[in-house]
Amino acid sequence: MGGLGPRVFDGALGGLRHGSPQPRCGHSRARTFRRPRAFRKRGGGRPRSDLTRRRASLVALRAAEGYRNRWNPPWFRFFKPVLRGGEGGLYGRQGARPRGADADDIERSLKRIAHEILERNKGAENLILLGIPTREVPLARRLRDALREAGGVEVPAGSLDITMYRDDLRSNPIRVPHPTSIPDGGIDAATVVLVDDVFYSGRTIRSALEAIADIGRPAAVQLAVLVDRGHRELPIRADYVGKNLPTSRTQKVRVNLAPVDEADFVAIEEA
Question: Is the pTM of this model over 0.70?
Answer without folding.
Answer: no
